Amino acid sequence: MNKKFIRLFAAGHLVTDIYQGALPAMLPFLVSEKNLSYAAAAFLIFAANASSSIIQPLFGIYADKISLPWALGTGVLLGGIGIGISGVLENYNMIFALVALSGIGIALYHPEGARLTNKFSGKNKTTAVSQFAAGGNIGFAVGPIITTVILSIWGLKGTLILCIPAIIMGLILLYESKYFSNNEDNLVNEGNSIRREEVVKVDEWGAFSRLTLTLLCRSTVFFGLNTFLALYFVHVLNQSEVHGSIALSTLIVVGAVGTLFSGKLSDKVGNKKIIIIGYSCLAPLLIAFLSIKNPMIVTIILIPLGFFLYMPYSPMIALGQKYLPNHVGLASGVTMGLGVTMGGVVSPILGWISDNYGIHTALCTLIIMPILAVLLARKLPVSNEDIKSKNIACKFTNKNLDLQK
């Protein structure tokens, strides 16, 4: 494993996802300062995720054909500048367009970043992917904190300050991009010389489609909470905007821990088991979260809820890459793009429910998703790569037994 590159990709992922985390934290300020409805605020989440959903798989396809290391730096820059400028504008259509531009930038980063992480990960694929994913989770977590502090002091015009991390990291990644290509070429050449007799791997498209549906269930829950959690604390639990952002950050910080934990555990016990465990624990925690009105207890429940919400994430990304070994970029674009951000596309529906029936009712509709995800995950086959690894381990054990005899 090339630890230097893995850490750099994770750091870039962190900065990129700051802007995904920043947008939900901006919503209470946009609602109060620009008099937006819940539906209009939710449509901004839709703008960011719809653009990202469509484009990420396309970038993934190109990443499988040609190396796109410049996409990392460019993606970070667009992601940060789009959000940073949106706060200073008054016209809703312009805000919508810049949020969509930020989504395009984020779409640029994820497929190539995940593909390169896979390429430089060595044998511990899920561990490396979990580090990459955890970087994004941390970005999601610190995004609301940074955004809330800045906006509390300077108002929405303070979003310009959010451009700074993107500019710094974007320039670093653009400078380092030439080394990604050179090292990748060397890695491929070494791999070809070592694996001359390697059997051609087959893509499992049916399994990958089922995995995408499973991931979509998690995405719907995630974006429902990501969009309305801060608003839920403010308008249902009667807490401050700062408390709402702290709650959102709590969910995501704990989620980052869950991501790292599940990545290491998946390399030992298998991706499928971790996915099923995570979803199975998520449903009752959601019910408890929505049944209790004490803000302190609800905040405490967010700790295990966030852990199990994020637990299936990196195993599903790694499993998607194993299902499509010949299209790792496309698999990454779908699992980290379409499969994830499609959950944001349902945000306007939840916004409409919130406007007409209340935020609590809207969040209650999410309970069915982890139940459906468990049913889908149970049908997921073990990947060819996992089967091959088990067979190799068995043969190695048998040889040792023969030698002992």
UniProtKB/TrEMBL annotation:
One of its GO terms (cellular component) is plasma membrane. It is found in: Cell membrane. InterPro entries: MFS, MFS_dom, MFS_trans_sf. The chain crosses the membrane at residues 36-55, 67-88, 94-111, 132-153, 159-175, 215-236, 242-262, 274-292, 298-318, 330-353, 359-377. It comes from Clostridium taeniosporum. The keyword S-adenosyl-L-methionine does not apply. The lineage of its organism: Bacteria, Bacillati, Bacillota, Clostridia, Eubacteriales. Residues 5-385 form the Major facilitator superfamily (MFS) profile domain. The keyword Endoplasmic reticulum does not apply. One of its GO terms (molecular function) is transmembrane transporter activity. PANTHER family: FOSMIDOMYCIN RESISTANCE PROTEIN. This is MFS transporter. Gene3D superfamilies: MFS general substrate transporter like domains (1.20.1250.20). It is a multi-pass membrane protein. It comes from the Bacteria. Keywords: Membrane, Transmembrane, Transmembrane helix, Transport.
